[in-house]
Amino acid sequence: MRHFGHLPPDIRKALFHQEPGEFTADSPARTLAVALGATLYSPATRPKLAADILKQSARGVMSMVLCLEDSIGDGDVAAGEENLVRQFALLDEAAAAGTNLPLLFIRVREPGQIPDLVRRMGPTTRRLSGFVLPKFTEERGVPFLEALVKAESACGRRLFAMPVLESPQLLHLESRTETLQGIARTVDKYRERVLALRLGVTDFCSAYGLRRAPDMTAYDVHIVASVISDVVNVLGRADGTGFTVTGPVWEYFRLHERMFKPQLRRSPFLGRAEELRTALIEHDMDGLLREIELDRANGLQGKTCIHPSHVAPVHALSVVSHEEFSDAADILRPERGDGGVLRSAYTNKMNEVKPHRAWAERTLLRAEAFGVAREGIGFVELLTASLPQA
């Protein structure tokens, strides 16, 4: 697998100074956590789920979650489980024939589903990367993780956990600190199995009867932004104790009536892709693009997606710019080990070696997964190349 691998080699060569690296489901967790990118959710009950997965993989999707929880009705869980067993058999056949699959995860409701599904799926579990654990707290999370360990032992392969942080206890101010500390204890104990932490912002909003409009990002809803800040503060540190925390879902994908002006400036698109700018605005993608940028500014990587049209924007904005790469490489040169300050090669900023080192390390890790754009290539060119006939 490789990001932008669905593009022809000549187009990749024109776009990238350093092309995205290859990875597999067996790559180190540190690599996979960044390479998740836009994680596309799909209900587990879809009758042609295997075909859908293969279709999205061919379009550049690198990770998917097959959901048995909120995306399906309570009465459909058994049918969803049976469907997953059937669809994984089809996926196993496709992979054996040489077809690439994305990283696949199953979102369960209860701990007992994990070993039960692994047992029922049998050898086809080799196409599964792990499980998504809903409404994760210390009390709820430990049984899920113990079930994961049991399933790992039964199938003889590595299975990752992606806890979803979405419980009211985490949102409510009076219980937030204690809940965060409990989550931190739990995921640290099972650190080697926790691939990433996912934020359930829809559930946060639900607790207060809120829903953000397409003109607004999660960071404009202050009660949500405060939780994101605290989660990153405790669980996203760059000192070796932290985890990858992924960005919240963007709910919109069709035209809505606007109250505010579009958030995309014209200048990046002038003379190149004005039609793309218009299409992004018409489909509320300008808000998504802004939220992706704010995700990274606030310490998040990747994003939960509920529509295929969101994948390309997430991946285009995940590519490391030539300027970022130049700064990061300068900061991490061996001769800079003693620290100091230097002017960037682009002569527009100060690079202070010690304070910027953690940023530089994260940037180069992202560059391994998503590549480095050529000088003068921005997200407009990357997005245009990624979208069919954009």
Automatic annotation (TrEMBL):
Cofactor names: Mg(2+)
TM region positions: none
Keyword flag Acetylation: no
Residues binding Mg(2+), per UniProt: D203
Classification via InterPro entries: C-C_Bond_Lyase-like (IPR039480), Citrate_lyase_beta/mcl1/mcl2 (IPR011206), Pyrv/PenolPyrv_kinase-like_dom (IPR015813), Pyrv_kinase-like_dom_sf (IPR040442)
Molecular function via GO: catalytic activity; magnesium ion binding
Organism: Streptomyces piniterrae
GO BP: oxaloacetate metabolic process
Protein name listed in UniProt: ATP/GTP-binding protein
Keywords recorded for this protein, A-Z: Magnesium, Metal-binding
Recorded superkingdom: Bacteria
